[in-house]
Amino acid sequence: MAKLYFYYSAMNAGKTTTLLQSAHNYRERGMRTLILTPRLDHRDGSGRVASRIGLQAQGVGFDRGDDLQALVERDIDAAGKLDCVLADEAQFLTRAQVWQLGEVVDMLRVPVLCYGLRTDFQGELFEGSQYLLAWADELVEIKTICHTGSKATMTVRVDEHGQAVHTGPQVEIGGNERYVSVSRAEFKRISRGEGRIDPLQTPLPLA
């Protein structure tokens, strides 16, 4: 039975890597997938999904006003049977789009796997995450670790000095240079101005 899944985490937990691995697993078995990605995030080019470790794939970009059920139906009409829809950066979905993805599951019988952040830099839910948490059939936490050694569940936005940023737009596209995943306790400490965080991380040697 098709289901709506929400894989959520703090920043830099490997959400996109997990999405790309899932898409690969389907395709390896001769099954067709559709990757959706918001055009809001242009870091890797519109429609392109790329992970921090170098994996990438071409997806279909969408805007906040797009009807995702209609988009999926057009894809099926054009290319035939679809076995799975995967949505990257799902925190940027609107309430209506989360509902539409639920319709893809319930009406079209196609499983939908959404990957995204749970909360923003102020600890508040994103719109897409709020409704995925409410409506998804399965919730899966992708775990990552805080520099303190505890599990990281929140994301702090920092300036060039490693100090927490408390104001600004909810959406500010950026990677490791702007956001750091931390535990709740560390989020509170940094937010109170009791310390700083070096946002620069040593890359994992791959050779």
Q: Keyphrases for this structure?
A:
six-stranded parallel β-sheet, 12 strands, alpha/beta, P-loop_NTPase, 207 residues, Wheat Germ Agglutinin (Isolectin 2), domain 1, Thymidine_kinase, elongated, thymidine kinase activity, nucleotide-binding
Could you characterize the architecture of this molecule?
This protein folds into two domains: 4-143, Rossmann fold (3-Layer(aba) Sandwich), CATH 3.40.50.300; 151-191, Wheat Germ Agglutinin (Isolectin 2), domain 1. The chain is an alpha/beta fold and 207 residues long. A six-stranded parallel beta sheet has the order 5-2-6-7-1-8, with helices on both faces. The chain is built from five helices and twelve strands. The model has no long low-confidence stretch (mean pLDDT 88). The longest helix has 14 residues, at 15-28. Strand 6, helix 3 and strand 7 (112-117) form a beta-alpha-beta unit.
Query: What is the gyration radius calculated from CA atoms?
Result: 17 Å
Proportion of residues in helical segments: 25-40%
Could you describe the largest sheet, including whether it forms a barrel?
6 strands, parallel
So, CATH architecture of the largest domain?
Answer: 3-Layer(aba) Sandwich
Approximately how much beta-strand content do the residues carry? 15-25%
Look at the structure and give the mean pLDDT: 88
> How many domains make up the coordinates?
2
Question: What oligomeric assembly is this protein in?
Answer: single chain
Report low-confidence residues grouped into runs of 5 or more: none
CATH superfamily of the largest domain: P-loop containing nucleotide triphosphate hydrolases
Q: What is the molecular shape?
A: elongated
Helices, by number, come to 5
Keywords: ATP-binding, Cytoplasm, DNA synthesis, Kinase, Nucleotide-binding, Transferase
Binding site for ATP: 9-16, 88-91
GO molecular function: ATP binding; thymidine kinase activity
EC number: 2.7.1.21
